[in-house]
Design a protein that fits this description.
549 residues, alpha+beta, 4-stranded antiparallel sheet
């Protein structure tokens, strides 16, 4: 593995040597990192010690799933206490070990039935859980059901459920159309209370009358009822993360209760290996250096200024089926909103530094990137040498998986240089599967690396790349393939965020859409946003190269 990959990732023909850096060893007292005395003395632009910031980075990257679980537990505890103080019955709000075991056994049986090729507990770990934290997650699920959708319908808090699931005005949404001459009605959220909650309540009543067991479950519980409750709990809670301003030693605060950084980091020690440790250090190093550079130029925004801009951006998602959080976490690849907020601050600060691009700059950018902006495609083939487990996405907990992947990549490159057939080498070495489990019919598949004609984002997705890794590593092999590679030439081995690659482009397909920023607001936004991305990542790259000397 390499501390900063920006200086090591120029696309080249087969060959070339790289320098490696030592990995941080696991720290004593169950903490997943060790910090030298020199590092401990360092403080970032916001005054946070280096060791504290690296631990926080680990917590909100490798441990992001567990942070969400801790927040949920704290919110459930607060709700139970609120009801207790109000004199409401809460004696039934307990999840016994037997109930937890039974729920896990049921979920495991269903999972193995649908995914016989996967191991249940390995998949649980791939989602950021240990076995113990997964038991806690199931306990939380049971407690939410008992608090809001218990087996006894007489215990259902119907007034509270109406507050949570009843129709509400949607701030920022255009009003609903009324009859001609009538005042327009405000835009409202769907009435889930009537459409979903009450039918489930009636089902619970029928089960009780028939003496049958009732347990809320299935698609409705998983994707409508429990998420709705959790959203309501979060909206009515005070949740503070480091970006919001927490003192050193504290990485989370929920309703006034502090969670120590060391405790949270120790809790994820079993999930952390050399890759996760190295990435946490890289994240802090890159953020600190970029913050310093932007501050020296007088453009570094305050966290409060960032929150104001985020509030404005959220308005664009009022009528969207995709939430603001989903966009950042699922589509752009940020491991947590805490990490997104920190990088967003840098990107928005750079946006102010860059200023408004001139018309000729926009046109030049369209010309350079029209294959992406205009929905063009590239027909490429990639021999991919994974540093991660391709079934789970997990990295080993010891050793240097990137060095192992590089060794295989150079062996394959030697065979190609000696005249071996490309197709035979690809099938012999490539770690990409024919298809991923659960791929819907008609959707693109990696086909062992013989991609066929694909758009840029799909190529990047197959290589495990996203905006977060662009910030962290400073290069996208997918972009090297999509924009730079000459058809017919073999490139590599090159190191990307998730492994090593040797690749070639067969042909490029022309863009399908003519970009018209003058008359199409959506086109104008896409061009400006992409130009900002390109220049921001180039700025970060320059900062890091200067730091590395």
């Amino acid at each position: 593995m390499k501390t900063h990959l920006r200086t090591l990732l120029a696309a080249a023909l087969v060959g070339g040597a790289l320098l490696s850096s030592p990995l941080a060893a696991a720290a004593p007292q169950d903490l997943p990192i060790s910090i030298s005395a020199e590092e401990a003395a360092r403080k970032g632009p916001d005054g946070i010690p280096y060791g504290e910031d690296v631990l926080r980075a680990l917590v909100y990257t490798a441990g992001a799933q567990q942070v969400n679980q801790i927040v949920t537990s704290a919110l459930i505890e607060s709700e139970i206490e609120r009801r207790r103080e109000a004199g409401m019955p809460v004696d039934h709000c307990v999840a016994t070990p037997e109930e937890i075991d039974a729920r896990i056994a049921s979920l495991q049986e269903q999972f193995q039935k649908n995914n016989p090729q996967l191991d249940f507990w390995t998949t649980v770990e791939a989602m950021g859980n240990t076995r113990e934290s997964y038991r806690k997650e199931i306990e939380r699920m049971i407690l939410i059901d008992k608090l809001f959708f218990p087996a006894d319908p007489e215990r259902w808090p119907l007034d509270l459920l109406r507050e949570i699931f009843g129709p509400k005005e949607r701030p920022g949404a255009p009003p609903q159309q009324g009859q001609e001459g009538e005042e327009q009605a405000p835009a409202m959220t769907p009435d889930i209370m009537t459409q979903t909650v009450m039918p489930t309540y009636e089902e619970a009543k029928r089960a009780k009358e028939a003496g049958e067991k009732f347990e809320v479950g299935g698609f409705v519980a998983q994707y409508v009822l429990r998420p709705g409750v959790l959203q309501w709990l979060r909206q009515n809670a005070e949740i503070v993360e480091p970006f919001d301003g927490l003192p050193a030693g504290v990485a989370l605060r929920v309703n006034g209760r502090d969670f120590r950084t060391a405790d949270l980091a120790a809790g994820i020690a079993d999930l952390v290996g050399p890759v996760e440790r190295e990435r946490a250090r890289m994240l802090v190093d890159t953020i600190w250096a970029t913050e310093k550079a932007l501050a020296e130029k007088g453009v570094l925004l305050t966290p409060e200024q960032c929150r104001q801009r985020i509030a404005e951006e959220r308005k664009e998602y009022v009528n969207s089926p995709i939430s603001y959080e989903q966009m950042q976490l699922q589509f752009l690849g940020y491991p947590s909103m805490e990490v997104f907020h920190r990088i967003y601050r840098l990107r928005q600060s750079f946006k102010d530094l860059m200023g408004e691009p001139a018309a000729d700059e926009l046109q030049a950018h369209i010309e350079r990137r029209k294959s992406f902006l205009g929905q063009g495609k590239v027909d490429a083939e990639v021999i991919y040498f994974a540093a991660r487990d391709m079934k789970t996405g997990l990295y080993p907990k010891e050793g240097d998986p990137f060095a192992e992947a590089e060794k295989r990549a150079r062996q394959a490159a030697g065979e190609l240089a000696a005249g071996a057939d490309w197709a035979a080498v690809l099938l012999k070495y490539s770690d990409l599967p024919e298809a991923y489990p659960g791929t819907q019919p008609g959707m693109p598949t990696p086909n062992r690396g013989r991609f066929g004609a694909l758009p840029r984002n799909q190529v990047r997705d197959f290589l495990g790349e996203n905006d977060y890794f662009d910030f962290l590593y400073g290069v996208s092999v997918g972009d090297l393939i999509f924009f730079d590679a000459e058809p017919g030439t073999i490139y590599g081995p090159v190191m990307g965020p998730t492994g090593w690659c040797i690749y070639k482009v067969n042909r490029r397909l022309d863009p399908e859409v003519e970009i018209d920023i003058a008359n199409n607001p959506r086109h104008d936004y896409l061009v400006r946003d992409d130009l900002l991305n390109v220049r921001f990542f180039a700025f970060v790259d320059e900062v890091m190269k200067a730091l590395e000397g």
